[in-house]
């Protein structure tokens, strides 16, 4: 049926489903004929198995008519105003069918661009949470008697020992959904009340990653791309776990990936796939290590080598050696700032003169959550609230704060953007490396290099994020 008159639905029809069901599935009953309930449904939601699920839940046949999200949102607010809290944060039910539940859960997490699924057990309840934009959101509540069957199903499909419940286990699931294939890394950890499982979704296709949309300012992007024009040297990207370093690396590889170049990568794990790039997965159990593989790379006639992470002195030395022998090396390292990368490598035992000769560009990055445009609220900014905590107090008349709505899972944030600090190494900065000078902030400022905190503050000034989200960067 089509929404001929969406403004006046019979109240008797409205009562055919509960407010919780309406908000969770984003459906509105519009009519009932010959034992069939006709429903308007949000066209942007996933309804692969919804008709069967609803018929089982309601006890009647259903017919869905997909409608624009704004229309469905308006009808939900009109006919179910007291149930406005989105059940995506409430206790959804678990059908007890481990096969279909696991498949639907993974498909849902992928559709929501979630990175991880957490399945946890406690004394009184079990829950499933998914990580969206870096934050965990509760999605399901399970009965304790249903939990073992789900855990056993995960262990079976990831080739783990279902009888072993005392030791941690690691496995993989190869998953295919709607023509998309990807790997899932499985980690099982014994806890006080049972086994906790974390599923990490990996191997997303990198073909849609665009370096222009990652978050580089025009100035930083120009500096970064200038470094990529070099045929040899090292480009390092630093930041904590989950800061988007791998995404930046693959956006870079996509840009460099041409028929005239031989690109090799060594990673643990392989998080993206990119046609035309030769990717190697680390397997330390059989001796396939970072350093050992890099030695073999030199016999493969590479132009560009991507090393997933510089973890130790051996790996760092191999990266330096490859840069000295005419290769462009891309890698990541865990440091707090772009210049801090240099101190870290020197602490690993790399001579400062070799760093000065091989390092082309050093980058630091973080991911900043963006305020939900549907619910963010404008407020006067009170500097006194942050007095004494920040090095530089923001000077803005007003700012935006997170509130929360169904569109953002009541978190107040929707989506993330990377902020960068890009330092291109010239001869003057190379001299500072040779002198092991760790304090170059004034020199960088004279060169117009923007810091992480400066770029993050620009997002705050534009009303795209909150002061709480960038507080740690401003306080450093």
Please supply descriptive tags for the structure shown above.
seven-stranded mixed beta sheet; 476 residues; alpha/beta
By DSSP, the count of extended strands is 20
How does the major sheet shape up?
A: 7 strands, mixed
Radius of gyration: 26 Å
The spatial strand order of the largest sheet comes to: 14-12-15-16-11-17-20
Instruction: Please mark out the parts with pLDDT under 50 across 5 or more consecutive residues, or reply none.
Output: 1-6, 85-91
Beta-strand content estimate: 25-35%
Description:
The protein is of the alpha/beta class and 476 residues long. It has 16 helices and 20 strands. It has a 7-stranded mixed beta sheet, with helices on both faces. α9 packs parallel to α10 (313-324), α12 (352-358) packs antiparallel against α13 (427-434) and α15 (452-461) packs antiparallel against α16. It is globular.
Question: What would a concise description of this structure say?
Answer:
With 476 residues, the protein is an alpha/beta fold. It is built from 16 helices and 20 strands. The strands form five sheets. A seven-stranded mixed beta sheet has the order 14-12-15-16-11-17-20, sandwiched between helices.
Secondary structure topology:
Blueprint: H1 11-14, H2 19-25, E1 27-33, E2 36-42, H3 50-58, E3 61-67, H4 69-79, H5 98-111, E4 116-121, E5 126-132, E6 135-142, H6 147-157, E7 169-177, E8 180-190, E9 195-201, E10 204-205, H7 218-228, E11 233-238, H8 245-256, E12 263-267, E13 272-273, E14 278-281, H9 290-297, E15 304-307, H10 313-324, E16 328-333, H11 340-347, H12 352-358, E17 359-371, E18 377-380, E19 398-401, E20 413-424, H13 427-434, H14 441-446, H15 452-461, H16 467-475
Parallel strand pairs: 2-3, 10-13, 11-16, 11-17, 12-14, 12-15, 15-16
Antiparallel strand pairs: 1-2, 4-5, 4-9, 5-6, 7-8, 8-9, 17-20, 18-19
């Amino acid at each position: 049926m089509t929404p001929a008159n969406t403004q006046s639905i019979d109240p008797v029809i409205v009562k055919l489903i509960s407010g919780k069901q309406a908000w969770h599935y984003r459906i509105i009953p519009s009519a009932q004929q010959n034992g069939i309930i006709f429903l308007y449904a949000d066209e942007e939601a996933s309804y692969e198995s919804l008709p069967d699920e609803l018929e089982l839940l309601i006890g009647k046949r259903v017919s869905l008519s997909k409608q624009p999200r704004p229309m469905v949102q308006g009808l939900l607010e009109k006919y179910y105003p007291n149930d406005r809290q989105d059940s995506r944060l409430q206790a959804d039910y678990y059908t007890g069918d481990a096969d279909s539940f696991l498949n639907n859960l993974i498909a849902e997490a992928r559709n929501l661009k979630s990175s991880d699924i957490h399945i946890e057990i406690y004394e009184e309840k079990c829950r499933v949470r998914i990580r969206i934009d870096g934050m965990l959101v509760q999605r399901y509540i399970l009965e304790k008697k249903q939990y073992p069957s789900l855990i056993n199903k995960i262990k079976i499909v990831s080739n783990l020992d279902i009888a072993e419940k005392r030791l941690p286990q690691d496995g993989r699931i190869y998953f295919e959904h709607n023509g998309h294939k990807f790997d899932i890394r499985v980690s099982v950890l014994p806890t006080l009340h049972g086994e906790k499982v974390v599923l990490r979704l990996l191997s997303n296709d990198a073909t849609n990653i665009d370096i222009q949309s990652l978050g580089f300012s025009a100035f930083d992007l120009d500096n970064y791309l200038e470094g990529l024009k070099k045929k040899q040297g090292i480009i390092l990207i630093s930041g904590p776990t989950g800061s988007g370093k791998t995404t930046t690396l693959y956006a870079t590889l996509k840009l460099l990936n041409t028929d005239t170049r031989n690109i090799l990568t060594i990673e643990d794990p392989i998080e993206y796939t990119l046609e035309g790039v030769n990717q190697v997965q680390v397997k330390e159990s059989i001796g396939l290590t970072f350093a050992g593989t890099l030695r073999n790379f030199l016999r493969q006639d590479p132009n560009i080598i991507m090393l997933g992470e510089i973890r130790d002195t051996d790996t760092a030395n191999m990266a330096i050696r490859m840069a000295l022998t005419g290769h462009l090396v891309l890698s990541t390292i865990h440091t707090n700032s772009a210049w801090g990368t240099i101190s870290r490598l020197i602490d690993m035992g790399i001579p400062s003169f070799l760093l000065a000769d091989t390092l082309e560009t050093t980058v630091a990055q973080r991911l900043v959550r963006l305020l939900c445009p549907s619910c963010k609220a404008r407020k006067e900014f009170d500097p006194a609230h942050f007095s004494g905590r920040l090095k530089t107090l923001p000077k803005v008349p007003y700012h935006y704060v997170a509130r929360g709505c169904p569109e953002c899972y009541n978190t107040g944030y929707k989506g993330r953007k990377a902020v960068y600090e890009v330092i291109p190494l010239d001869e003057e900065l190379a001299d500072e490396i040779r002198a092991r000078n760790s304090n170059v902030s004034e020199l960088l400022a004279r060169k117009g290099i923007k810091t992480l905190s400066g770029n993050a503050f620009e997002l705050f000034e534009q009303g795209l994020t909150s002061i709480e989200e960038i507080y740690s960067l401003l306080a450093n």
